[in-house]
């Protein structure tokens, strides 16, 4: 095996480790909501913070920390050795996951989620920047698709183990496994990644922020962040929280299946859709994938009605009694994964293309992250409010609608700036 392949495999392992830890927290979020029992809190007697806001902060604390960390980490990746930065953030992630074990309050959980957010952002930026930098243009989206497929494989394994282990043993063994995987990824990257000799002086964010293609896709990505953050976070919440708060009250293992369905289809399709994007361009895949995601998201709240109309079973071996909504919810989650598999490698490859051409691939991915952050911070706060004050179904209506407005805005700007054939020419 040549040295280049060994480096790709080390980076794929990094994506696996990051995906495993990330999805575990998503899968167990409904358990943390029930275990920590967030309630309204008075702040210095001046105003009251509601339970919906605190639930939103369980995710917004994570995404807020990611927002703050993007620029310094991306700048460090372009200015110094990306491999060294990657090893550092992987070590930080190892510590963060160990700290989840003693958490016993909402404030503590939010704080550790913030530390996790910094580690996840750094590992994602550096691993994708290195994959993009090591890849030729004609294989870039395919290699990115493989890297993402590694993360999705971990997501499948992590969500299934998280549900099963939590039901049997509680939180501690789950995080012990994550710490071991993160430590192995840290040591592997330290041993096998070659020195990164690319050095970009100055502040490459400035030029890349004015890149015409990046500005065009920004019109889509800023809106789509709200859609994905809402839908991806609230599918397992919808499946797991009590009926009193609008959920289906499934046990952890059943919740895991709703998460696994989306990750499995995404993993299955991404390498192939990445290859097609290398061959036929990026914009069309972003448009089709984003639009399909919005349409499927709108259907999620109708899972009980679909199950009842089709007279689907409400009990399953091992999982026990659930409801007729279970199979439709799992199926719709799988379709969300198919839709996103068209968008994600094409979008990542576009930013890698522009960053490599301009000499700042880490900063290009940093801009991609920054475009995502406002929506990913506002999204969960909005979702928490909608869940408690309006109704669970409105989380998905708003999420799906935002994806659709995002792709329509993208199409309009694309055609205006690059002409009517740009959708198939990028």
The total beta strand count reads 4
- Rounded to an integer, what's the Rg over CA atoms? 21 Å
Give the spatial strand order of the biggest sheet.
Answer: 1-2
Helicity range:
over 70%
Beginning-to-end CA distance, first to last residue: 34 Å
- Element pattern in H and E: HHEEHHHHHHHHHHEEHHHH
Morphology: globular
Contiguous low-pLDDT stretches (5 residues minimum) are 42-46
Overall SS class? mainly alpha
Task: Describe the largest sheet.
Answer: 2 strands, antiparallel
| Mean pLDDT reading | 85
How many helical elements? 16
How much of the sequence lies in strands comes to under 5%
Protein name: MFS transporter
Transmembrane segments: 12-33, 45-73, 85-103, 115-137, 149-166, 172-193, 214-231, 237-261, 282-302, 314-338, 394-416
InterPro entries: MFS, MFS_dom, MFS_trans_sf
Pfam family, one: MFS_1
Provide a brief overview of the structure.
It comes from Halogeometricum luteum. With 426 residues, this protein is mainly α.
Please explain how this structure is put together.
This protein is mainly alpha-helical and 426 residues long. The two termini are 34 Å apart. The longest helix is centred in the last third of the chain and has 33 residues, at 326-358. It is globular and about 55 Å long. It has 16 helices and four strands. Residues 7-418 form the Major facilitator superfamily (MFS) profile domain.
What would the keywords be for this entry?
mainly alpha; two-stranded antiparallel ribbon; two-stranded antiparallel sheet; 426 residues; 4 strands; 16 helices
């Amino acid at each position: 095996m040549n040295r280049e392949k060994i480096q790709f495999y080390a980076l794929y392992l990094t994506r696996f480790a990051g995906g495993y830890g990330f999805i575990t927290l998503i899968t167990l979020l409904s358990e943390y909501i029930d275990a920590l029992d967030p309630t309204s809190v008075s702040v210095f007697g001046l105003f009251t913070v509601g339970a919906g806001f605190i639930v939103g902060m369980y995710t917004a604390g994570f995404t807020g920390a990611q927002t703050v960390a993007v620029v310094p980490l991306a700048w460090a990746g372009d200015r110094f050795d990306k491999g060294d930065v990657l090893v550092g953030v992987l070590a930080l992630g190892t510590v963060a996951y160990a700290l989840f074990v003693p958490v016993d309050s909402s404030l503590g959980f939010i704080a550790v989620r913030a530390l996790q957010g910094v580690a996840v952002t750094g590992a994602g930026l550096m691993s994708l920047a290195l994959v993009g930098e090591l890849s030729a243009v004609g294989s870039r989206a395919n290699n990115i698709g493989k890297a993402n497929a590694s993360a999705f494989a971990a997501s499948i394994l992590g969500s299934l183990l998280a549900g099963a282990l939590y039901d049997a043993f509680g939180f501690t063994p789950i995080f012990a496994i994550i710490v071991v995987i993160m430590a192995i990824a840290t040591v592997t990257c330290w041993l096998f990644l070659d020195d990164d000799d690319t050095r970009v002086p100055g502040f490459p964010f400035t030029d890349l922020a004015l890149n015409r293609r990046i500005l065009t896709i920004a019109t889509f990505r800023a809106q789509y962040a709200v859609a994905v953050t809402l839908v991806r976070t609230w599918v397992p919440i919808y499946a797991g929280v009590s009926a009193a708060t609008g959920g289906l009250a499934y046990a952890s293992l059943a919740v895991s299946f709703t998460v696994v369905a989306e990750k499995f289809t995404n993993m299955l399709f991404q390498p192939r859709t990445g290859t097609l994007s290398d061959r036929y361009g990026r914009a069309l895949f972003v448009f089709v994938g984003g639009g399909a995601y919005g349409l499927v998201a709108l259907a999620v709240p109708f899972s009980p009605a679909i199950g009842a109309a089709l007279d689907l079973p409400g009990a399953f071996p091992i999982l026990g009694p659930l409801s007729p909504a279970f199979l439709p919810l799992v199926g719709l989650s799988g379709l969300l994964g198919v839709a996103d598999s068209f968008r994600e490698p094409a979008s990542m490859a576009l930013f890698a293309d522009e960053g490599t051409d301009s000499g700042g691939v880490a900063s290009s991915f940093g801009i991609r992250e920054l475009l995502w952050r406002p929506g990913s911070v506002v999204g969960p706060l909005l979702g928490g409010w909608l869940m408690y004050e309006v109704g669970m179904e409105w989380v998905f209506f708003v999420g799906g609608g935002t994806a659709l407005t995002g792709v329509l805005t993208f199409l309009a700007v694309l055609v205006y700036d690059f002409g009517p054939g740009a959708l198939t020419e990028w």
